[in-house]
Amino acid sequence: MAAATQSAPVPAHELINEANQPPMLRSNYGDYLDQSSVGWLKETLTTASLGEMRQRFDQDGYLFIKGLIPRDDVLDVRQKYFEHLAPTGILRPGTVARDGIFDTSQDPIVHNGVGGSDLPEDIERQRLLESAHTMPIYLAFLEHPDFRAFVRSFMGWQKDIILKRTLLRHNVPNGLSTGCHYDRIFLRAGEDFLTASVPIGDCTAEGGGLMYMEDSTDIGKAMEADFMKRAEHFTPEERISGFNHNMARDGQLSHNAVELDADINMRYGSTGGTKRRWLAGNYEAGDVVFHNPYMIHGAYGILCNIQFSGMVITNSGKKMLMERIPGEADGPMSDIAKRTYAGSFDNCAEFCDEYDDPSAPCMDVAYHDGYCKSYGTITGTFSLAGGIAAVR
C-alpha cells in the first residue's frame, strides 16, 4: 500500500478529530500525555440558557461556547495580525496572511511570540511584536459588542472597563508556548475574575491551543493558599508577584505536563477514584472558552504550522475579565504516524507503504525527530505537511 507525497499543508479547518479519539497532547517539554489522561471539552451552544451555562461553569470550571462571535470578524483580525508580522519572515512564501502558515525553513526560536520566551534581540522584531498590541482592528475587536454583551449578562455585571494592558502572542511549531499555570498567579492584587480563550482562526485539538486539567479549580486554590502562606514574610509587592521567590522564573507551574500531572495526582489524589484528564477541543473561529481563574491549563505543543494567540485584561468594578486569544494551526500529522511508527530512518518508506493510499508510491519520505516526514530534495528540509504526515 502506498501514497503520493503531499506538497502543501492541509488547512486546520479541513482536518477532523473524531470525538471518540482523544488528541495527542504534550507541553513545551516531556513526553506526550498518556491517552487515558486526555479527553474532550464539553461544547455548549449559544441557544443554551444563562442558567444552564452558569451551572456548567460552576460544575466544570469552564464553559466552551461555539460560535459566540461572528467568524469573519475573527478572521479579519487574524489577517491584519499576520500582515503586521509579515516583515519578520514568519509566513511561508506564497501563502496569504489570513491563513497564517509558518515558514518551516525559519528558526522557530527566533519567531517565538510574547510570553513564550524573552523578547527577541532584534529591535525590529521586538517593535512589531509590541506595536501589534495597538493595531486599530485589534483594539476594536476587544470592544466587540457580541462578546462584551455576553460577558456582562453571564457575570451579571452592569458595565466593564477595558484596561490599557494586553499580552498578545503567537506560537509556532517547535517553539516555546505558554506553560502550565492558573491565571490567579499573575493577577493576585484584585478580586477573582473570568478568563476567556478566543481562537483567532480554526485550531484543531492538536493545533497548539489551550488544554485544561479536569476538576482542577480546587487544586489551584490549594496551591495559591500554600504560595500565600509561604509568602507571609514577603513585602506586599513581593507577595502578589507571580515571579516571587516561591514561583518559577517565569511564574509557570511547569513546562512539562506529564510531570505536573503525576505530581498533582500524587499530592492531591484523583476525583472520585478517577484520574484527572487534560481536556482539549477542536476550536473554530468564533468559539470562546471561559474558565475559572484557578483552573490549571496551558498551551500544548503544535503538530502543525502556526498558532496565533493573544491576551487582554479587562476590568469591571472590583472584578476583572482576562481574554486570551489563541489561534489557528495548520496540518496535524496522521494519528497512525504519531502513535505507531518508531522505526529507523530507512524504514519510513516501508511504514508509508503499509498505511497509506495504495494508489501511488511513497516518495521522499524519511524519519526525522521521531516521525516519518516528507523530505524536500531541493530545499533539503523536512516537513510535517507531506507524505505519511498528511494522511488523515
Describe, in plain words, how this protein is organized in 3D:
25% of the residues lie in helices and 18% in strands. The protein is of the alpha+beta class. The longest helix has 15 residues, at 71-85. The radius of gyration is 21 Å and the shape is globular. The two termini are 15 Å apart.
CA-atom Rg in angstroms: 21 Å
Order of helices and strands: EEHEHHHHEEEHHHEEEEEHHEEE
User: How many strand elements?
Assistant: 14
How would you write the strand order of the largest sheet?
2-3-8-5-11-10-4
The total number of structural domains is: 2
**Major beta-sheet overview:** 7 strands, mixed
Helical percent range? Answer: 10-25%
SS class: alpha+beta
At a glance:
This protein is α+β, with helices and mostly antiparallel strands and 392 residues long. The chain has helices spanning 50-60, 71-85, 123-131, 136-142, 145-155, 217-230, 236-239, 257-268, 335-340, 348-355; strands at 38-40, 43-45, 62-66, 161-171, 193-197, 210-213, 278-280, 288-291, 297-299, 307-316, 319-325, 365-368, 371-375, 382-383.
